[in-house]
Amino acid sequence: MTSFVVLLLAYILSQFFRAFLAVISGDLTRDLGLDQGQLGSLQAAWLIAFALSQFPVGYALDRIGPRRTLAGFLLVAVAGTVIFGLSRGYVSALTALALIGIGCAPILMSGFYLAARLYSPGHFATMSSFLIGFGSIGDPLSGAPLAYFLAAYGWRATVFGLAGIVAFIALLVILLLKDPPPLPDAPQQHVSLLRGIRQIVVKRPLWLILPFTFVSYGVTISMRGLWIAPYLQAVHGFDLAMTSYAAMAMGGAIAVGALLVLPLYRRIGAKPAVVACAVVVACAFFALALWGQESSRLAVGLFLVIGLFGVTYAVVMAHARAFMTPREIGRGVTFMNFVFMGGAGVMQWLSGRLVNGLDGRGYDPQATFGWLFVFMGVALASALVVYIAAPPESKGEALAAR
């Protein structure tokens, strides 16, 4: 239980860092002279660095366990946070966000690793959803609470305070996190790490799940972590306080949705639950494109719908896990996480390029963001078409989750 609490605190921090740029973007635009494309690149740098780090994370978890792995990576996050607070331009800020992404990379995977080692397969999605759901409180903390500290102390002092919090959590990890008992065949697992990743990649059922994995989380986190604030400010005239409350509300919806999808998963299974949620999210994106500019209340409501139904992360992971043997679980979930976060980074980068390109051609904010929402909806719908063809989890796996 102590280990779960420590991992929960660390994951709250990770969720905070994924979303805080939406609120701090105005300060960065003013003080560092960044445009919308560069802001998108900052968030993309966090996610891409996070994703690429999954491979050394997977090796380290198998080799030295979650305690030393997580503590060491968090020290990288401390360095990145300090550099971010000292940043004077785009390159230093980009470097800092990449370091923070690297530092946060093992947090969720450490929790998944412990859940896979200590709990039955049927309870994997349950423990994962609890960690994601309760840990997602970090998302709303990056809304109004962050805005308060920004207004009171400025963004640089706030970021330096965050560096102290990261260092404190690293200390808790060292002192309180416990590794699971070693596996009797651990040496063989270390030797076959790259071969194990290859065994995951060549699994044909996963080929139909991976496109959805690549897109689904990315479209939701792009809205919450990057575009909700610029959209509401440019199209609906929101000030910082109103924007922060809307961002906090969407973060809360993400946290609630990560928990509410669990009973749906238990009742109808992983694949039907994911399909149902994705259809709702795609429709919300198209509704935003068509009618979002007409009413701020409607727009915020649709953002809440996207947050509530847009994080099926743990259920998609449980679906993919059904096709992995017990020996493949650690590296398998790490690879899936790489695809989730790599896709999120790419979606952030592409969305930044799209918004910057449309803005450069003279499109007004309504048209620019309308096309952004269409892009997100089409990307999700296209990936969903492929996912529908994926084989469902076995009946035994589905029953074990109930």
Anisotropy-based shape: globular
What is the tally of helical segments?
22
Q: Please name the CATH architecture.
A: Up-down Bundle
CATH topology: Growth Hormone, Chain: A
Order of helices and strands: HHHHHHHHHHHHHHHHHHHHHH
Number of domains: 1
Please outline the major beta sheet.
none
Share in helix: over 70%
Terminal CA distance = 22 Å
Tell me about this structure.
This protein is globular. It is mainly α. The chain has one domain (2-176, 190-400): Growth Hormone, Chain: A, CATH 1.20.1250. It has helices at residues 2-19, 21-32, 36-52, 54-64, 66-86, 90-104, 106-118, 124-135, 138-141, 144-153, 155-176, 186-191, 193-201, 204-207, 210-236, 240-268, 270-291, 296-309, 313-321, 329-360, 365-388, 395-400.
Question: Nutshell version of this structure?
Answer:
The protein is mostly helical and 402 residues long.
